[in-house]
């Protein structure tokens, strides 16, 4: 994060980094002077992304964690902050929803169908936020980005269990924004977007 003779480069931590949205975000932020911490389950895929970003002149590092493993996710974000000297932006968008879950219509949903998505989308976001928010508040600046499925706003019945969890994440993020924007939180206010 700190290089001799240089000002600190801001860092974005992308939880759920992959070859789609995660790579696009890494390129977008990296092209604007950010270092990139990539967090996902598959080390080989992460290493390939780091190599690809390095070839484009974007400093990046990989940190392995599954969002279901809350202690490991917290540790990965702690390790990323130590590696880069801090995290300025947290982006949470764990991918693979369709590949890792049974897609269920609302009338066919069991509590377990929805709970698995709540664990994946909402609880992972809460864990990641808890890992970075104290430092952002201490710094008095920072950004939290959450990219739930579009079904959070415009649900589609065939993925009712996924949409329910996405809506829960969106609701939680909006509430977090309201809490952090309240005058009682100043001067350590962080911004979020959902």
Q: Strand order across the biggest sheet?
A: 3-2-1-4-5-6
The helix count comes to 6
Most strands sheet: 6 strands, parallel
Structural class: alpha/beta
Kindly describe this structure:
There is one protein chain. The protein is an alpha/beta fold. Helices cover 48% and strands 14% of the residues. The protein has a 6-stranded parallel sheet with strand order 3-2-1-4-5-6, with helices on both faces. The two termini are 27 Å apart. Residues 1-6 have low confidence and may be disordered.
Characteristic terms for this protein:
194 residues, alpha/beta, 48% helix, globular, disordered N terminus
Write the layout of secondary structure elements.
Elements: E1 11-15, H1 21-30, E2 35-40, H2 43-55, E3 60-64, H3 70-84, E4 89-92, H4 97-100, H5 111-139, E5 143-146, H6 160-181, E6 191-193
Parallel strand pairs: 1-2, 1-4, 2-3, 4-5, 5-6
Helix pairs in contact: 3-5, 5-6
